[in-house]
Amino acid sequence: MTTMRDTFLSTMEGELAADPLLALVLADISAGTPQVARAAERFGDRVINVGIREQLLVSTAGGLAMAGLRPVVHTFASFLVERPYEQVKLDLTHQGTGAVLVSAGASYDMAGAGRTHQSPADVALIDTIPGWTVHVPGHPDEVPAVLRESLPGKGNVYIRLSEAANAEPHHGAGFRTLRSGRGPVVLAVGPMLDRVLAATAGLDVTVLYAATIRPFDAAGLRAALRSAGTDAIVLVEPYLAGTSAPAVAEALPDIAHRLRSLGVRRDEEVRLYGDMADHDLAHGLDESTIAAAVKAFG
Amino acid sequence: MTTATTMGFAELPTLMSRMIGDEKHSAAATSTLDVLWVLYDRVLDTSPERAEDPRRDRFLLSKGHGPMAYYAVLAAKGFIDPDELGTWASAGSRLGMHPDRMLVPGVEIASGSLGHGLPIAVGTALGLRVLEPSPPRVVVLTGDAELDEGSNHEAIAFAARSGLHGLTAVVIDNGSSTHGWPGGIARRFEVEGWAARTVDGRDHDALAAAFTEPHPRRPLAVVATIDPKD
């Protein structure tokens, strides 16, 4: 199966050919793929592999942007956001430059690799820095459009790719209503959608889908609550539980509401190998735990 | 600004006094003074009028601590009004304890957190090599203690292997690194493939020569030695 990462790399290969101001910056991860190898052969000076040097990876992108290029920076999420956090904060934000960061690995795609390769805090960390757009696509076919809309301009964009994916892509901007009901409004982010739809089958709820979580579609959430006549919101996010809770509060300063936040556990480190399904269970992001949480909350 | 551009090295202490008074200037403030002057007066191809010119030489002050000498040189060369120096470090001033490129004309990077300038300079030099047929120079200034930051060593290793000959790192060595650099700082650059020169950081002619003599196909490191008790 074609992954989001494959789709990203193939799209980048085409975009590098189309735009002479575009650069791809890597730290070994994905550097050996056929797409990158071909791109490096054709556009060698714009396909930059700094080796296993993630501080340099992000700072180089800041420097490239200062020179007038548009950098796309890619590695695993833990090494793209968590390890060089200060470089992201200063060299891409404080300096007034901009880059497109594209991560792979998500919260626990590499479940068997253990905690060192798991990055559930990436979006929460990005949230501490102003001005970022955050995309969390739910299907490989959503990736090309998300990438292409991120390339123009000089803004900072974080695109979080995962091996977890929904069966079908859902295109379009803002929070999209995939099911309408009078019970809680359930906001499913990216790859969480299919399990949310399955968990809420037969329940009288509204299901919203978000492939773009920053900026937070406050108007979309307010419209869904108004339309359903409910005060209850359930967030289902594939990263740290409650990452978007402040955004919900900010969206509803004048509306009394209840919020249940599902996501990767914050209360303890889940010290577990296995596969993604094992981690879904451990974090309560499996279909039956989501179903129980929504029913109990309704 | 025509009066400002006529200022010379002898007037820098007066400009610095507008920020920090007439007391003996701290080592952090003056260790960079001669290097900065030589760069702006004799080496860098830049000017206030060319602030947006993509072909201007870039100077990145990575060692942002003690920027008074930097502001004084920028004022002497017409990038900022000398009268603005009096606002230094006050709430409404553009001139902070660490420089901010978004606020100060001529400042190419914001600095203060150590170890960012050299990695950024690598990116800038890579980008200019793509964009300009005859790429301008990128000169970055660090301190010897700043070299403790590992991010610099990521940049040092990568820059030479990438053949970034348009990149120059100048290291102000006043012996302030806590654990030191046995064998000398220049050696750290040379083993990675840089051309490296160690000169008296107060000798203007020696500095100018070190910055301008050819160093084909290699990035250049200039270690400017300063008296630690300065």
Structure description:
- The complex is a heterodimer of chains A (298) and B (230).
- Chain A is an alpha/beta fold.
- Chain A folds into 2 domains: 4-160, Thiamin diphosphate (ThDP)-binding fold, Pyr/PP domains (Rossmann fold, 3-Layer(aba) Sandwich); 176-297, Rossmann fold.
- Chain A has helices spanning 4-18, 34-42, 54-67, 77-82, 85-94, 122-126, 143-150, 193-199, 218-228, 245-251, 276-283, 287-297; strands at 22-26, 47-49, 70-76, 100-104, 132-135, 156-160, 176-179, 185-189, 206-210, 212-214, 232-240, 258-264.
- In chain A, the strands form 2 sheets. Chain A has a 7-stranded mixed beta sheet, with helices on both faces.
- In chain A, helix 9 crosses helix 10.
- The longest helix of chain A has 15 residues, at 4-18.
- The model of chain A has no long low-confidence stretch (mean pLDDT 97).
- Chain B is an alpha/beta fold and 230 residues long.
- Chain B is built from 8 helices and 5 strands, in the order H-H-H-E-H-H-E-H-E-H-E-H-E.
- Chain B has a 5-stranded parallel beta sheet with strand order 1-2-3-5-4, with helices on both faces.
- In chain B, helix 1 crosses helix 4.
- The longest helix of chain B is centred in the middle third of the chain and has 15 residues, at 117-131.
- The A-B interface holds A 21, 23, 45-46, 48, 50-51, 53, 55-56, 59-69, 71, 86-87, 90-91, 94-96 and B 54, 58, 101-102, 108-110, 113, 115-116, 119-131, 150-151, 154-155, 157-158.
